[in-house]
Specification:
Shape of chain A: globular
Oligomer: heterodimer
Strand content of chain A: over 45%
Radius of gyration of chain B: 14 Å
Largest interface: A-B, 20 and 24 residues
Helix content of chain B: under 10%
Order of helices and strands of chain A: EEEEEEEEEEE
Largest sheet of chain B: 7 strands, mixed
Distance between the termini of chain A: 41 Å
Number of helices of chain A: 0
Radius of gyration of chain A: 13 Å
Structural class of chain A: mainly beta
Number of strands of chain B: 11
Distance between the termini of chain B: 37 Å
């Protein structure tokens, strides 16, 4: 059974500083997703990572994938309040998605 | 493109009644749709996989007689929560998988999520 672990589960960020969320998974997979969820809302797709060494960036968010280590990171640069949300990584297992527990991010001034 | 809708967006019902939630892919065909449940401050848990024209595949621990799934067309799947109880109160999210080959690299087989349905059972 595929297990996906995220840490930290909660992250209090100070505006302007950099932070990283980690996502480990237990078996090989050919793709990994990062999603954002705002309170009361559904998931918003941020990144899909397909291969070892893949790196994608959008604004202040950058995601990377190391398939050998079974590790993905979501790096936040110079945090701003708008980034407050819960972030999930999800790994494809066959055709299904297995989600991490989520990281709830709060950005404070 | 790749828009998924859900209806209703929220519903409140009495214990013992049944509730139907619809999931539609608006601009693509989806042979496979997925139903997830999310309790407050928790992650998404896959309940079942819905395949057009065939029976749904349920995850371990999900009662198929309680959560009836019908995938009658390539754009519509429905989840019916039968004899709902307060413990069924949750956020139900569907996703649809686009098998179209004309999508950008990485989008093939990606799941697109609906906006969710908040179910409250009194």
């Amino acid at each position: 059974e595929l297990k996906v672990e995220q840490n930290p589960l909660f992250l209090s960020m100070q505006e302007g500083k950099n932070y990283t969320i980690y996502c480990n998974y237990s078996t090989t997979s050919d793709r990994l997703y990062w999603y954002r969820q705002d309170p009361g809302k559904s998931l918003e797709s941020l990144f899909v990572l397909l291969s070892n060494g893949a790196v994608k960036q959008e604004g202040r968010l950058m995601a990377s994938l190391d398939t050998k280590a079974r590790l993905s990171t979501l790096h936040i640069t110079a945090a701003v309040h708008d980034l407050s949300a819960t972030y999930f990584c999800a790994v494809v297992d066959d055709y299904k998605l297995s989600f991490g527990a989520g990281t709830t991010v709060t950005v404070r001034a | 493109g790749a828009v998924v809708s859900q209806h209703p967006s929220w519903v409140i019902c009495k214990s013992g009644t049944s509730v139907k939630i619809e999931c539609r892919s608006l601009d693509f065909q989806a042979t496979t749709m997925f139903w997830y449940r999310q309790f407050p401050k928790q992650s998404l848990m896959l309940m079942a996989t819905s395949n057009e024209g065939s029976k749904a595949t349920y995850e371990q621990g999900v009662e198929k007689d309680k959560f009836l799934i019908n995938h009658a067309s390539l754009t519509l799947s429905t989840l019916t929560v039968t004899s709902a109880h307060p413990e069924d109160s949750s956020f139900y999210i569907c996703s649809a998988r686009d098998i179209g080959r004309a999508l950008p690299l990485g989008k093939n087989n990606e799941q697109f999520f609906g906006p969710g349905t908040r179910l409250t059972v009194l």
